[in-house]
């Protein structure tokens, strides 16, 4: 869709059309008003907004549950690596293992940590709760309605 203007006797008139050669034009003010009316229909009423939020939240959680499980699993593996390295340090300090064994354990832990960190990056985990985001979205919808009503 494209827009154009035509100069009338006293002012310009604005239109929307598919191409300049199609010959059919729609008055921009009328079309803008119709578009606003249709958009207002898409904004949920205040009394059903909590239901929409709940449904969206449930769907989001079901779609991201596997990602969350993988995130928790990787976090617990990282914690296990930290514990293993800490125990190895204590054993090295207490001379229960030699420097070469400690170095090997430290290197293995480093490699495992690097692998898990790349897994974290690939998960692209967002820790912000969906409910907070939904509250912002619905608040913005209400603001938008107020703005468009004032603009008319």
Please tell me about this protein's structure.
This protein is mainly alpha-helical and 152 residues long. It has two domains: 39 residues, no CATH class; 98 residues. It is built from four helices and three strands; from the N terminus they run βββαααα. A three-stranded antiparallel β-sheet has the order 1-2-3. The protein is elongated. The two termini are 23 Å apart.
Key structural traits:
152 residues; three-stranded antiparallel sheet; elongated; 2 domains; mainly alpha; single chain
The parts where pLDDT drops under 50 for at least 5 residues are none
What sequence of helices (H) and strands (E) makes up the elements? EEEHHHH
> Gyration radius, to the nearest Å?
30 Å
Number of strands: 3
Task: Write a short abstract of this structure.
The protein is mainly α and 152 residues long. The protein is built from 4 helices and 3 strands, in the order βββαααα.
Secondary structure: elements and pairs:
Elements: E1 2-7, E2 12-17, E3 26-27, H1 28-42, H2 49-93, H3 99-123, H4 130-151
Antiparallel strand pairs: 1-2, 2-3
Helix pairs in contact: 2-3, 2-4
